[in-house]
Amino acid sequence: RPVVGVLALQGAVREHVAMLERAGARAVPVRRATELSEVDGLVLPGGESTTMSRLLESFELLEPLRARIADGMPAFGSCAGMILLARQALDGRPDQQQLGGLDVVVRRNAFGRQVDSFEVDLDFAGVAGGPVHAVFIRAPWVEKAGAGVEVLATVSAGLVPEDPAGGEPAARIVAVRQGAVLATAFHPEITGDERVHRLFVELVREA
Ligand code: GLN
């Protein structure tokens, strides 16, 4: 079984551990650089990306993690994890650090203040067996994706609850893949459906 770490500084750690185990991996929490060096892939959970960014620095994980991602280690970020993996985060804090595995620009808390959370069923490229139930919690969206980024799922304009800019609602990118780096704006770890985690464990096996 591939060994998949879950960054365990903050956020939805247990849920990812449980889903990874169901998806056929051995899941281990990662808090130190020595633990990071022993995993075949890493999940960055949801939580608060600004807090996680600060904790990555104080646990001296920021540079080791950047180095492993640059070196091709498979990574899967959900929600705050997606924000950390992005090359740039809009509406972040000025001192927020990016890990940079994904050539995307994300917008934090993009779906607006009035609707902090919503759920939709999404077609998800690479996941067979019907739509994936997606739970969004103060979620980002991908505002710009580079040419090397594959879009795996979008929320259609009619389902975007609110456009904070007040413009016409547009379809929004909420799941992407670039090489061995996968990210979802939503939380596949809390719905009991491990298909997205299976897709990631498959990427880890291939790497
Ligand atoms: N809004 C959070 C952030 O900016 C992400 C929320 C989540 O991970 N559920 O980091």
From TrEMBL:
A Pfam short name: SNO
Domain of life: Bacteria
Record-linked SUPFAM superfamilies: Class I glutamine amidotransferase-like (SSF52317)
Entry binding sites for L-glutamine: G47, E48, S49, R108, I137, R138
GO-annotated molecular function: glutaminase activity; pyridoxal 5'-phosphate synthase (glutamine hydrolysing) activity
Signal sequence residues: none
Active site: C79 (nucleophile), H187 (charge relay system), E189 (charge relay system)
E.C. number: 4.3.3.6, 3.5.1.2
Reaction catalysed by this enzyme: aldehydo-D-ribose 5-phosphate + D-glyceraldehyde 3-phosphate + L-glutamine = pyridoxal 5'-phosphate + L-glutamate + phosphate + 3 H2O + H(+); L-glutamine + H2O = L-glutamate + NH4(+)
Family under the similarity heading: Belongs to the glutaminase PdxT/SNO family.
PANTHER family: PYRIDOXAL 5'-PHOSPHATE SYNTHASE SUBUNIT SNO, PYRIDOXAL 5'-PHOSPHATE SYNTHASE SUBUNIT SNO1-RELATED
Subunit structure: In the presence of PdxS, forms a dodecamer of heterodimers. Only shows activity in the heterodimer.
HAMAP family in alphabetical order: PdxT
Protein name (Swiss-Prot/TrEMBL): Pyridoxal 5'-phosphate synthase subunit PdxT
Gene source species: Amycolatopsis saalfeldensis
Gene: pdxT
